[in-house]
Amino acid sequence: MADAVLRVLVTEGFEGVSVRKVAALAEVSIGAVQHHFPTKDAMLGAAMDRAGTRFMGRLGAQLGPEMSAAQRLETLAVALVCPEPDDRDISVAWLLRLARAAVDEQTAIRHRQDWMRMSSWLANLIAEAAPGVDAAETAVELLALLDGLACSVAVEPDRVSPELAQRIVRGHVRRLVN
Q: DNA-binding region located at which positions (predicted)?
């Protein structure tokens, strides 16, 4: 059902998500959807969990134990921009949750927690790859850049193509660690 929520969320936005649409897409009863998701925000949370699981699965396949910290940082940064066409829904779901977080405190709390976890992960990689850099501040800067690029790739791919975003990210990370 979470996949159905994610599909409806990405195609129709938060306002378009309904128990009826999710039930029809998932081919389950309305009662089953209501049992799993008592609120619309619960549906958004499930969609974000599904997107996060897919993201981490894809990232896990790309990261190898033989990679240096700089290589892991670059791989993570590129993945966060989600340049693959099949991953556009992950970026769109992130953007929709961000918009919801601006008006809903519970969504904002969850968003901030996820953002802080990612910022911490980036800071750890930055500290290892570029020891002379203020890792915490640089992670905030990098994550802000990545968020902006992911937004542009998702919303205006003719202006900021996935390939351009990837070149920007790789160049930024390489300058950071050198």
A: 18-37
Domain count, the chain: 1
Q: Is residue 66 part of a domain?
A: yes
User: Within a domain: residue 77?
Assistant: yes
144-167 pLDDT, tens digit per residue, is 999 999 999 988 989 999 999 999
Is residue 47 within 8 A of residue 91, CB to CB? The reply is: no
Average pLDDT of the segment spanning 107-116: 93
CATH number of the structural domain spanning residue 109: 1.10.357.10
Q: Characterize 142-178 residue by residue with b for buried, 16 or more Cβ atoms within 10 angstroms of its Cβ, and e for exposed.
A: bbebbbebbbbbbeebeebebeebbebbeebbeebbe
Check: CB of residue 46 under 8 Å from CB of residue 5.
Answer: yes
Q: Which domain holds residue 106?
A: 51-177
3 in any annotated domain: no
Cα 9-16-92 angle, rounded to 5 deg: 30
